Amino acid sequence: IFKIFFVFVQNCTRDITDALIAMCEDRQEDDGTAMLSNSQIIHSVIDIFGAGFDTIITGLQWSLLYLIKFPDIQAKILQEIDNQVGMNRLPQFKDKSNMPYTEAFIYEVFRHASYVPFTIPHCTTDNITLNGDFIPKDTCVFINQYQVNHDMDIWGDAEAFQPERFLTLSGHLNKNLTEKVMIFGIGVRHCLGDSFARLEMFVFLTTLLHRLHIENVPEQELDLSSMFGLTMKPRPFRIKISTRN
Ligand code: HEM
């Protein structure tokens, strides 16, 4: 499995995979000093790649669809990229805090598409009463994130795609509202890659839009309904890409 993805270089730790392989090389599995068995290492890699790839790819697919469906929104993001980044360097993580509209767009993609509609099923370890409801021990529980993200009491017109809903009148992010978007679960078992995933989405999207203009192809009807699966994906669509002057 390891050789498919990387060539391992001794004493060069580029990421978690390198760290795990180095750990394999340095220890004997059965001498009692191993922190992780071979099986645990292999399954850790599968977990991280499995949880971290499809979720980001699907988020980017939805983002591209919204960007070509709503060219005015794309124009506002391009404006922000040009003001904050310019053409002489690539977007970086640190730009994120100065680009509230782009951040608001990503929050609205998470909320509107809600493409991880349910959290992973968990199990209660004890009897518990939550908001007046009794839940017995050993009950399977999970959250309907889609419902939270489309609750009209919180969002008003929840079906409309409006990044502006997350901005205050002065153009800053409204943290009271952004924290109500639920796509990474909640509690001690919420997504391990939460912060990293937000950064990835920001850097991938801004890097693409920094140099490329994307638009719908003539005559193509854009459908925002989703296909069901582990993550909900948009229906296949085509995009026209050109370089930005
Ligand atoms: C936009 C991208 C992502 C979304 C929407 C997402 C969503 C989720 C959700 C809903 C859960 C289940 C939480 C729960 O059951 O309460 C989860 C768990 C998890 N995610 Fe993510 N995820 C994303 C990206 C990532 C990335 C990039 C990584 C790794 C680098 C990752 C690693 C994990 C792991 C390891 C768990 C299991 C945590 C546990 O059981 O304690 N995820 N994710």
Give the topology.
Layout: H1 2-5, H2 16-26, H3 38-69, H4 71-84, H5 100-113, E1 122-123, E2 128-130, E3 133-135, E4 140-141, H6 145-149, H7 152-155, H8 175-178, H9 194-211, E5 212-216, E6 226-227, E7 233-234, E8 239-243
Antiparallel strand pairs: 1-4, 2-3, 5-8, 6-7
Helix pairs in contact: 3-4, 3-5, 3-9
The protein binds protoporphyrin IX containing FE.
Protoporphyrin IX containing FE binds near residues 47, 51, 59, 185 and 193.
What profile does the largest beta sheet have? 2 strands, antiparallel
Oligomer: single chain
Q: What is the number of independent domains? A: 1
Reported by name, the CATH topology is Cytochrome p450
Describe the 3D structure.
The chain has 245 residues and is mainly alpha-helical. It has a single domain (58-243), classed as Cytochrome P450 (Cytochrome p450, Orthogonal Bundle), CATH 1.10.630. It contains 9 helices and 8 strands. The strands form 4 sheets. A two-stranded antiparallel ribbon has the order 1-4. Helix 3 (38-69) packs across helix 9 (194-211). The chain is globular, with a radius of gyration of 21 Å. It starts with a helix and ends with a strand. The structure holds protoporphyrin IX containing FE (HEM). Protoporphyrin IX containing FE (HEM) binds next to helix 3 and helix 9. Protoporphyrin IX containing FE (HEM) binds at residues 47-48, 51-52, 55-56, 59, 116, 119-120, 183-185, 189-193, 196-197. It holds the Pfam family p450. InterPro entries: Cyt_P450, Cyt_P450_CS, Cyt_P450_E_grp-I, Cyt_P450_sf. One of its GO terms (molecular function) is heme binding.
